[in-house]
Amino acid sequence: VLGISHGRLRRRIGLGPRSRLDLLRNLVTKLVRHERIETTRVRADEMRFYAEHLIEHAKRGDADPQAMRLADFWLTEKDLVHKLFKVLAPRFAPHQGGYTRMVRIPKNDNLDRAERAVIEYKGNPLPPLPLPRRDGENTLVNQLLKGYREERGTSV
């Protein structure tokens, strides 16, 4: 009997369930250590939930047994548990969610052309990322459209 899939399925990352979990644990550990990492967009999007979930539980404090269990599971380098509870959790204490920022970056032509992204914890001491430029009124396309509209409006 085939069941109907409701909701979001887990993405297939790695070579199986254990490989996927190991990959996500390593990414979360690197994010806590460096506070900014570069990876594929799919991996960044998938690990974002777990990184934010870890901060949400760390805000409860290191006396909470569930928070300590989660930190022990997700952080493969145990020296980062102190950073999680003493540095990151107080930084995000006044905030309710949205602890990470993900910015897409150009594809790497000489590799597999996978979409790349940078994911970071907000408020980190690193220099800010340049945000993607939005279309302004001075772009070529918008100037051509403006000229077309003006020309069409006068000829009618």
TrEMBL record:
Pfam families: Ribosomal_L17 (PF01196). One of its GO terms (molecular function) is structural constituent of ribosome. One of its GO terms (cellular component) is mitochondrial large ribosomal subunit. Keywords: Mitochondrion, Ribonucleoprotein, Ribosomal protein, Transit peptide. One of its GO terms (biological process) is translation. It is found in: Mitochondrion. The keyword Translocase does not apply. InterPro entries: Ribosomal_bL17, Ribosomal_bL17_sf. Belongs to the bacterial ribosomal protein bL17 family. This is Large ribosomal subunit protein bL17m.
